[in-house]
Amino acid sequence: MLNKKDNKVFIISIFLVLSIVLWCLLAPNTFNIMANNALDFLVGEFGWVYLISMTLFLMFSIILAFSKYGNIRLGDNNSKPEYSYISWFSMLFSAGMGIGLVFWGVAEPLNHYVDPMGIEGGSELAKSFAIKKSFMHWGLHPWAVYSILGLSLAYIQFRKKYPCLISNIFIPFFGKDVSNKGIGKSIDILAIFATIGGAATSLGLGTLQINSGLNYLFNIPESSLVQTIIILIVTILFIISAVGGVDKGIKILSNLNVLMAMVLLLLSIMIGPSFDILHTFFIGLKDYSIDLVLELNPFEKPDWYKSWTIFYWAWWISWAPFVGTFIARISKGRTIREFIIGVLLAPSIVSFLWFSTFGTMAINLGINTANSAILKTSTAFFIIMNNYPLGTLISIVAIILLCTFFVTSADSATFVLGMMSSNGNLNPSNKTKITWGILQSLLALSLLLSGGLNMLQTISIVAAFPFIFVILSSILCLVKFLIQENI
């Protein structure tokens, strides 16, 4: 399955993941205390690093897109994109957001509406606050992180012809054999750990919401047995998709995802307060634009920023190795400008419309409904939809969409893990993909059954902290590569 060159990264990664899972299962309280202490320390002492870094990532992405290097192709000068705009967008969107939008589309705006920062809950100001902060957390910033790492990886593999390993981004610093050095292997192992941690957490969240939706609509019990069956079914589906490869499996499912998401969105706009939704969208864009420049002041309300914005920034950075690697894999032939603008704008606009729609539908029902809906995040969507015509139909479509997003996120992660543990092979073997597919599902299931899902989320964010500096350094490496283009 793996040659000797790959075995060290693969074996150490497996050992690290299983050791942490074993610790979590045997001593969950100790693990929980240590993981949360580490997270509190990082967010409390280095929150400013997250905030400044995320701003730099966004600024660099925009500057590079409109620089003289924007016309450089990710490949040979005459290379063409492998995928249409629709398929490309569908795959990057499904990998980068997917389950999260369905899970938080109602719950996050409601949380901000009920308990806004320094504003009376349930007020008109709270409505504006809820939307603009949802835009902030799900808009340009996460995609700027993905675009930088994804662009660096696409550049080195398609333009410079090096294997798609995050360690190879650092060739300008450490030489062409960096992936065989200790520092290179450490970077690749950390990337694998962050990827499988984020993927397993996503699987767990998806399982919880699917089970909650089935319980709310059809009285199917919320139990370990049902959750095990859900994970088993989804695992079979996403392994089949991953084995089918990008063209046959992941692309088809991603296109289906976006089609279903658009159906769900349009149906919701039609049966919901349409005028209010559109008004919220445009006002939200205005408030968000102002917030980007003027209002981000974590020193005014540090606890709120630690709980929300800084936590989100840490979470998006922990997802950067997975999403960045996958976006790079599907972006051969695009120009740097096309890549950055596409990755930044297209999914952000959909996210803005998503939160405007479901946030407005939820908030318009008033503070009492909001308070009851956010008692349990996994059922918030279904509780709100139950108050609208065709609400049951929308909820059923949402559950199906959760399943397809679930499968696409998992098969994308499986594919990326196969690449990372196969020396950057763009088409890893089926045995490698199946191994990682089974492992991430077992990881999600064991943590779900032991109540340790939040612990994995915490530790993956903690482990991904060094990736702030990896991504910052990748900017310098990419600039050094681009200077050599002699444009």
Number of helices: 20
The main pleated sheet reads as: none
Q: Report the top-level CATH class.
A: Mainly Alpha
- Chain oligomer state: single chain
Mass-distribution shape: globular
What is the strand content? under 5%
What's the count of strands?
A: 0
CATH architecture: Up-down Bundle
Can you write the helix and strand succession as a string?
Answer: HHHHHHHHHHHHHHHHHHHH
Tell me the Rg in angstroms: 21 Å
Which structural class is indicated by helix and strand composition?
A: mainly alpha
Low-confidence stretches: 1-5
Key words describing this protein structure:
487 residues, 0% strand, 20 helices, globular, mainly alpha, Amino acid/polyamine transporter I
Question: How is this structure best described in words?
Answer:
This protein has helices spanning 4-26, 28-65, 85-96, 99-104, 107-114, 124-138, 140-159, 171-174, 182-218, 224-271, 274-295, 302-307, 309-329, 336-363, 367-373, 377-385, 391-420, 430-450, 453-463, 467-483. With 487 residues, it is mainly alpha-helical. The chain has one domain (4-483): Amino acid/polyamine transporter I, CATH 1.20.1740. The longest helix has 48 residues, at 224-271. The protein is globular. The two termini are 42 Å apart. Mean pLDDT is 87; it is low at 1-5.
